[in-house]
Structure formats: C-alpha cells, structure tokens
Write a structure and sequence with these properties.
By secondary structure, the protein is an alpha/beta fold. 42% of the residues lie in helices and 20% in strands. The strands form two sheets. It has a five-stranded parallel beta sheet, with helices on both faces. Strand 5 and strand 6 form a beta hairpin. The chain binds guanosine-5'-monophosphate.
Length: 191
C-alpha cells in the first residue's frame, strides 16, 4: 500500500465552544496524530503545564521570536500573544506525522492561506445561548474577559463557512464520532 502524505489539521472555533475537551478525547483516540503546542504570553491557568498545555513565555521573548520568524502564524487575542511554531509543524510533517493545531479563527484563516492542503475544521456551539452559558459557567476569567470573548465569538462564527468541515459540539460523543470520520476519510485522501 502506498503511504499517504502527512497532513496538517487546523482545528478552530469560538472560545467556550468546548474545543479543549473535544480535542483531548479526540487526540486520546488517535495517538498517531501529533498536537502542536503553541507559545503564549497568557498566565497559566490552574492545572496547565508548561510545555504540554502551552509554552508560557514572556512578551519580550515572544516579540523576539516574531522578529526571528519562528511562527507559522501568531495573533494577539484578548491582550495576549499566541503563536504556532513553524519548526514544530515542519518537523512533524517531514517525519511523516499528521499534526493538529488548535488555534483561534484568525490564526486558522492565516494558516489556510499559507497551507492550501491543510484540513480545516470549525467547531460550532449548538446555539449562541449555549455558548454564553458555557463561557459564563467556566469561572476561569473575570466578567470583562467573558464579555470580550463572547463578542469575539460572535464575529468568529461568521467565518465558519470558509472551513472544509463544520462540526457542532452538542453531544460530545457525537462530535468525536464526526471528527473520527473526518480524520479517517482525510487520512485516506491524497490531498
Ligand atoms: P486560551 O487562552 O483559552 O487557552 O486560548 C485562547 C484562544 O487562543 C483559543 O481560541 C485558542 O484556540 C487560541 N490559540 C491557542 N494557541 C494559539 C496559536 O498558536 N495561535 C493562534 N492564532 N491562536 C491560538
């Protein structure tokens, strides 16, 4: 059997849509899919581990990395920088591994411009009300941050049609099933 080329998966959706939980389960079920750990200047939340959740770096280091072209894409989101390492992505693809980025919508659109063969997936909430409930219930950010994130989310959802796949995260098991279907289909497609 001919070995298929490795693929870049770009996974996005508004904050609060449950991307993190979905992704953790999806990656657990697909151990061959590598996860690209981003860098950020945001402070770690409780339970987050440097080098696993993110590389937590200073604003100065991030800006130096931008100058040195270390990022495939980067963005400023809610006053913090977030970026994808070009080296991590290239290394995985060169070694023949599929790699997955979990990034916000603007960053995902940038990657789609640069890598036409990437597989883009947008996760949608079942409804705007449900998204608001999930964001408010998270209790990890103050009220102003939640309001900011909701406003960003409403704008982001308008971009969903530009993505190859849209997956609604209503029931997590069904969303995972859909993601597995997409992954298995894409693994067998030659670009
Ligand atoms: P959080 O602060 O909740 O971990 O992440 C905020 C947003 O930043 C999320 O939508 C997440 O997907 C996005 N994000 C995480 N890493 C990156 C990255 O490397 N690049 C971009 N553009 N967005 C990222």
């Amino acid at each position: 059997m001919v070995k298929k080329s490795p693929k870049l998966f770009v996974f996005t959706g508004p904050s609060g849509v449950g991307k993190g939980t979905l992704l953790a389960e999806f990656l657990k079920q697909n151990p061959n899919l590598e996860y690209s750990v981003s860098s950020t200047t945001r402070k770690p939340r409780q339970g987050e581990i440097n080098g696993i959740s993110y590389f937590f770096i200073s604003k100065e280091k991030f800006e130096e990395d931008i100058k040195n072209n270390k990022f495939l894409e980067w963005t400023k989101y809610n006053e913090n920088y977030y970026g994808t390492s070009v080296e991590t992505v290239n290394k995985a693809l060169n070694e023949g591994h599929d790699i997955l980025l979990e990034i916000e919508v603007k960053g995902a659109l940038n990657v789609m411009q640069k890598c036409k063969n990437c597989v883009s997936i947008f996760i949608l909430p079942p409804s705007a009300e449900e998204l608001e409930k999930r964001l408010t219930g998270r209790n990890t950010e103050d009220k102003e941050t939640v309001v900011n994130r909701l406003n960003i989310a409403k704008d982001e959802i308008k971009q969903a049609g530009k993505f190859k796949y849209n997956v609604v995260n209503d029931k997590i098991e069904l969303a995972i099933e859909k993601l597995n279907e997409i992954y298995n289909k894409e693994k067998n497609l030659e670009h």
